[in-house]
Structure formats: C-alpha cells, structure tokens
Amino acid sequence: MSKLVTELHIIGENGNIFDTDMEYIIPLYQRAYAWEDKQLVQLIEDINDVAEDSNYYIGSLIVSKQFGRYEVVDGQQRLTSLYLLLNCLGIKTKSTLTFACREKSNYTLRNIEELLLENRSKIDMDRIEPGIQRGIRILSHELTKDHFDRESFMEKLAKIIVYRIEVPENTDLNRYFEIMNTRGEQLEQHDILKATLMSYLSDDSEKGLFAKIWDACSDMTGYVQMHFISKNNAVREAIFGSEWNSMPPNSWQEYKKAISGTTQETTGHKICDLIEKNFKVEDDEGYVDGDVRVRFESVIEFPYFLLHTLKVYVSLYGVTHEIATSKIVDELLDDKKLLDAFNRVVSCGITDTGRIADNKEDFARGFIICLLRTRYLFDNYIIKREYANDSADGEWSLKSLYVSGQQSKKKAYYGNSEFTRSDEEEASTKTNIMMQSALRVSYTSPKVMHWITKLLIWLSEADCKNIKNDAITKFDKVAENIAIDAVRENFFQVCSNGVYAMGVNTPHIVFNYLDYLLWNDDWNGKKKKYSDFVFEFRNSVEHWYPQNPSEGTFEQWKDGVDQFGNLCIIQRNVNSKFSNMSPEAKKSTFKDMIVKGSIKLRIMSELTEKNGDKPASLYWKERAYKAHEEEMLGHLKKACNIE
Question: With b meaning 16 or more CB within 10 Å and e meaning fewer, what string describes 450-474?
C-alpha cells in the first residue's frame, strides 16, 4: 500500500484510532458536526452487518500533515461520529480530536462522559454544542436498546477499518476541499485501490498509462472503446483496430506504444473549441437501424466489475492462497470488501511464477490488461439495458460496437453481437438475450451475480479461444448450464420423495428457467404464442389458490397449497389483494397483468375453468394443479436430466 495510505482499525489490541500522538484538527472551513438519526443509525447497522471472517472498510479520511498534526480535509463527520461512538461505548479516548476556533465543540467533546451521566450540575450547558449533543443522545439511545448485543458489536467493531490518506505536500487545501465538497462524496474503495495498484509501478509514464486504462474501464456507461479519446481516434484504433471492435492486446508493450506515444485527450475541451459554431461533444451514444439513437446501461457498477475481473484474473493465472486450506477469493461479491479482496490476492496469492507479493509491478500490469480485455468481453457478450432515443423504457440488449465512415468522420453504430457463424444471427442473439435476462432477474443483488463471473471466465480462458471459433455458437448453452446447475442444486436436490412444496421459498431461478424453456419451445415451434414475452423483475412468489382465502368465502387448502403447481411469480407491486383471491377472481381481476406476466402464470390462468358442476377453484385444487405441476416439472426434469 502507498506510504500516503494508512490502514487504521477503529479498536484493536493496542488501543483505538484516537490513541495517537498526532492530533486530528477540524479546520474552520469545515462545517460544524451535523450527522443526525439517519447517518448515525446507518453507522450502527453497518457495523452490525460485518461478517466474522474479514475486515470491513467504512470510509476514508483525507488529511494533510500540518505542523505535527493532521488537518482533516475530508471525512470529519465520520471521524467525529466514531469519536462519539467510542465514548458512548465507554471506551476511553485521548483528546486527539479538536475543532479549530470552535470552543463549544471542544468543550462538548471534553465533557461527553458528564453528558452521558446527565451530570448537568458539573457542566455549563450554555457552552454545549447542540449538534454534538444530539449525536451523543442518538448513539446512546441505539446502544441501550433491549436487542443490542454489546459483545457481538465490539467483536465486529474490531474488524472496522478506515483508510487515512495523506494529500501530497504543497497541495492547495482550499482548492482540494472545494472539489471534495462539490462532489459531496467520500473517496470510494475503488479510488483507493487505483492509487494502491498504481503505487506498485515505479515508472511515472507507466502509472499514467495504467490510469488512462483504468479511467476508461471505470465508466460503465456505453462501450469502453468510446472512452479512449484522442486526435483522429489514434489510440482507439491502436487498441481496438480500425473497425474499433478487435480484442485489446495482451501485451504491456503494445499499450505503451499505443497510448504513451500518442496524445490522449481528456473529456474536457478548450475554450477555442467550445466557441466554434459547429462544436459538438462526442458521447457514448450511437445508432441502430438508421436514425434510431441508442444509449446503454450496465447491469452492474464498477466496484462489482472489479470483483468479477479479479476472479477472472485468479482463474486465468491459476492464483491460489499460500495457505492451501484458505480461499484466495470470497464467494460473495461484496463491494464493501473490495480492498480486502485485492489485498488478499496480492499478499497471499501464489502463481506458477511465484508469490505475487514479490512482484507487485507485474501484478499491476497484468491486472490492468485483464481489466480492459474483460471489459471488452463484458460489453460485447453480457446483456445490458438499451434505450432508444429519449425513451425511458429500456430493453435487454446484446450488441457490439462497429464503425461507419472513413478516417476522422468515423462514427459508432451498434449491431448484434456475433454468436453464430451461420445466417441465424437474429435467432441466436435472441436466445442469448433471453437466457441471460432470465439469470439477471433471478439474481437481483449484485453480490450474487456469479453467472456473470462464470460467463466472463469462459469467454476469457485460453486467450479468449472461445470467441475465435465455433464454440461461441453455444454461448447460450453455457449460460443455460448455469441455470440448470442452480435448479438442480437448489430445487431438485432440496425437494425429496417427489414432493415439490417449497412454497414462497422456491428459488426464482426455477420459475424463470421454466419460463425460458416454455418460451424456447414456443419460439422454435410454429405457434409463436409467447413471442411478446420478456423477462422482468417478478420478485414475489405467490399462491394461485391462496393460503388464506379472503373472509372465508371459500375453503382453505391445507395439504397442498405450497406445491409447485400452485405457485407463480409476479411483480411485487401488484395489488396486495392478489394473495387472498380465488383463482377465478385473480383471472378476471388481473387479466392485464397476467397476459404480460410469467408464461407459467398465463398457463395457470388458462387452466382455471370450471369442470362440470365443480367451480374453477375447487377443480383447480382437486385436479388441475396436479396435472399442471407434472407437465411443468416434466419440462424442468428433461432439461436438467433428472430421472
């Protein structure tokens, strides 16, 4: 880690973050302490959410060393809150936190214990700063609630770290604070990671090269090619070829030649350019189908993309932990543990060429190349949301960037990514979109989007051989196998003795993969009955025949209501009355929702008909649901090779 970046534990064996000979001073240009309920309760919750097996990054502290003390440039609200928290927990702190020219604030900090004991006779209440007093009151209230587990909280607090980052000497602090205050943000973990990885490089020109690639990849809007801006597109073409769509090279020297030797322009513009009559800002937008302008939105944010790429790197280079029984990367993709994840790989990682810690420079170079190549694959082969013109309604998309025009007049346009070597391009693209979107809506948290990692590893392995041959024609099957494994493990292996009655705990992937199978059978057939079907975020598993019939209007079903045949998946915002209605009432009341809903739900609605003298609900409960379940399970078992 850089000498300017220090990892600080809030509490530890040798004391706490304020047990230091260096004083933290909050300068006058900083606002007064202002955290209230929302921020302080969130601080407590963040600490309570810490896992047992790793440290937890909770923010950064930007300081400038001035005359033997740290002047806090950014992070004072969090730092002050931690000071109050420790005191509210009864942890003694040195008086190393002070406010410049704010006597009330300093007096309040010196008398926290008396405020907690409500010894008003021993303090001058007129000298108490209201904001800090309010913070003490909120924290004290949270820490004395009946359910608060002090022992567990202290164990988790010991895993909390902040990064103290010293700004270089001669930094214009007023200008720096102005920029930070305008952003209104803390430095994120990925900002610190960038600085740390760059610090491994000894050559300034290589650091600049690293930063340019990193910055291009960190913008998750659009396609990464469009983030390399230079005169006459020289850098873009050196990296991605004249058509802007070739795999980036795997050689550090080629990047040095492509970028270092060419003037790289920033996204800023000169005043002389801005005042030109025909000036136009180049953006990430392009066109499809003639004059239809499109923009794209990633399904994950950059910190998560870094974690996916780290797993790709580990797979490609066979990185293992120096302790054979320990994992080199976590299963969960937790952006709060981004720095911890990279620190573990760098500190404990071993490859065929030795310990990564012994050659951090090569790791920095190798990772940044892997980042760009993985981003290129991500842009071309992982779904995103596509928005046409000014529409707010997006659709799932799998497109690649191409170029039209000549020389300086080249412009980007977008066409289907290549998944086939035959003339069935549209059909192949459609099945890939449908399969990936089924996975996307099944795993809504970015922490569990392991399907993206698996697809990126498959695309990256053996110098990306799978995109260079006919293997890419089976990419939809690679994605489908991920769904199959999940359905087998979390449904068929969980349900025993032929009873499929997980109720609302049935994994969403089971419903979405079933819908994919039903759609695919229909798509390849002649009916095209479900050609309008798209995967949406249907996140609520519901009973078609209700668990609790409304007002006792029809009998309760006790022994089979949780069976898979009686379950459907709907959008959570559908009227809450849905859950208690009879099947025929749902069919008539939610007709518009059903016709656009899950394919399984549509089929259930069609099957809800009276039979002879039996009402539709009774017939559904006695016979129809079972036949429906057997048919649906038949599709799943066949696809999953379950006997």
Answer: bbbbbbbbbbbeeebebbeeeebbe
Residue 206: name the closest of 197, 216, 217, 193 by CA. Answer: 197
CA distance 519 to 534: 9
**Which tokens in the block code for residue 420?**
């086939």
pLDDT in tens, 381-417: 999 999 988 777 899 999 999 998 887 788 889 999 9
Q: How far, rounded to the nearest angstrom, does the alpha carbon of residue 388 sit from its chain's CA centroid?
A: 24
Distances (CA, A) of 541 to 36, 223, 394, 451, 630: 37, 36, 24, 22, 19
Tens digits of residue pLDDT in 263-306: 444 444 444 443 444 444 444 456 665 677 888 999 999 999 99
How far is the C-alpha of 495 from the C-alpha of 381, rounded, in Å? 34
Contacts of 555 (CB under 8 A, 6+ apart): 549
Whether residue 413 contacts residue 403, with contact meaning beta carbons closer than 8 Å, is answered with yes
Burial class (CB in 10 A: 0-12, 13-18, 19+), 586: buried
- In the sheet that holds 354-355, the strands lie side by side as 320-321, 349-351, 354-355
What pTM, to 2 d.p., does this model score? Answer: 0.75
- Give all strands (DSSP E) within 107-168, no chain letters: 160-166
